[in-house]
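Workshop exercise sheet. Pairs work together: one partner reads the sequence aloud, the other fills in the structure field after running the prediction. Swap roles for the next sheet.
Pair: D.N. / O.F.
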Amino acid sequence: ASLADALEAGTENMKAEGVAVSDDAFATRVMSAIKTEPLSAAQKKALEVIDSRDLRASMDAAEKLIPHPEVFKHLESLFPGRLYVDRYQWTPQKFPPAERHGPVIKALLLLGEDAGPLLEKMLDHTGLDHRFYATFLLEHLETEGALEGLRERIFDRDLQTRALAMRALIKRSEAAGFTDHVLSPLREELRHPTDELHAEQAGEFLGLAKDIHSIEPLIEALDMHRGKVQRTLHESLQRITLQPLPAASIAWRTWYLGARQETRATWVLRALNSPNDHIRALVVEDVEKLEANHKLVLGYHPDQPARLRARAQQQLREWYSQHNKL
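Structure field:
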């Protein structure tokens, strides 16, 4: 019997004798044991088969691997492994499930957060597919690290990698260090951009993050750029503030002078019944997040009659007041 089996048997005996043993405590002991004991013959076989040309056999092998140093060392040498999805035939919004892309990708997905260090290392790889698949998997896995590495990938020369890096970072927006490792450096990038791409990507992400402390850097950057970059910065300003102002810094400075003491909740409330179609469309994302996080049912739609939008507005105002958000 393996050490993990012995630990499990010991735990069951303790429970039978009335000794309290939490599942978390057991999991910690078992995983520590698994990571230090030698791989079994079956696990070694699975590690050999993971790179097989036999699709079914390699995909089955991916399900048998365990979080073990020897496993990660081998998967790192193969990464990203044989691929069975042509990612360029898909948009980032429509990618097939991660486990269909290839056996190594599937294995790392199943290994979960233990795969984090390997994937973080791959974020800086010279290979396009290495960086793409590291970013792709980190969007799906809940890992505490990778903030700085993912931040750098929003400037990747591969468009799909940039899009996935933004999504992965947005999912980590509540993580400790998010402001220091992501938002602050991107605000600084806006003020002193490396190039047009960096200015555009930094501005776009800060808008997606709804970062109110980026309003002033975004206003300053409006006059520094033209064309597509300026349009992206303008869209981010509207996304954060929910104001239907033109792409002219003087208009934004004038507005912000009087609005900087207001909460963003106030802007969300006004946007619900804004006469501007685009602003009402933008606020839908805020409404959906509020409904998902706080079990609210506002029944809001941007194209509803003004009477129904006002009802949702009043309902949200009452909720904001109860929770001291205004």
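Discussion prompt: The CA atoms of residues 180 and 290 lie 25 Å apart. What would you look at next?
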